[in-house]
Write a structure and sequence with these properties.
Layout (H helix, E strand, L loop, with lengths): L4 H6 L3 E10 L2 E8 L14 E4 L2 E3 L6 H13 L3 E14 L2 H6 L5 E11 L14 E8 L11 H12 L4 E8 L1
Parallel strand pairs: 1-6, 5-8
Antiparallel strand pairs: 1-2, 1-4, 2-3, 2-7, 5-6
């Protein structure tokens, strides 16, 4: 938790639109190899981890526009937003991470179920930090994989089974 309320006055809050894209029992994830050291979720350099396609919302861009743009940039797929699955908030407590990536220190994730508009993949145009590739993985294995934020990976099946969007809570990450 913040020790000094003044610190919170200067910290920006970033909206991040993420996509759950399922095709033939597989979900599309972004594979990363950590180069940031332990300031990123305490992972050692070289650690493999995954996240959902998507990213930051630009000014004057809707969340739907953000997730479709980010999916095309990172995965090469054009997607259609079907529905909101979840909202989750994460605040980094790691001082090194906060100073190095201030704009990513407080994120509100909006997780959408998306479908492929076209199964033909275009070339990637922009990869996230440490991203190696976008790949399809068995949806039943996602809870066993190092997916970040952790709660999204561990909650994925129950989110898909629910008819209503879920609030996954707020968390302070080290």
């Amino acid at each position: 938790m913040l020790n000094n309320m003044e610190e919170g006055l200067t910290m920006g809050i970033r909206n991040s639109a993420k996509a759950v894209i399922i095709d033939k029992g597989q979900v599309l994830v972004n594979k990363h190899i950590n180069t940031l050291g332990e300031m990123y979720y305490g992972l050692p350099d070289g650690a493999e981890y995954y996240d959902l396609p998507g990213g930051g919302q630009h000014q004057y861009e809707t969340l739907e526009q953000a997730v479709t743009r980010e999916c095309l940039e990172e995965t090469g797929y054009t997607v259609k937003v079907e529905r909101l699955l979840a909202v989750y908030e994460e605040i980094s407590l790691n001082k090194d991470f906060r100073s190095y990536y201030e704009q990513y220190a407080h994120i509100v994730y909006f997780v959408f179920l998306c479908s492929l508009k076209d199964t033909e993949r275009q070339p990637y145009t922009e990869l996230d930090i440490d991203m190696v590739e976008a790949q399809w993985v068995d949806i039943n294995k996602i809870s066993e994989m190092p997916v970040y934020p952790r709660i999204i990976g561990s909650s994925l099946i129950s989110l898909l089974e629910s008819e209503n969007p879920q609030f996954l809570g707020s968390d302070y990450a080290d």
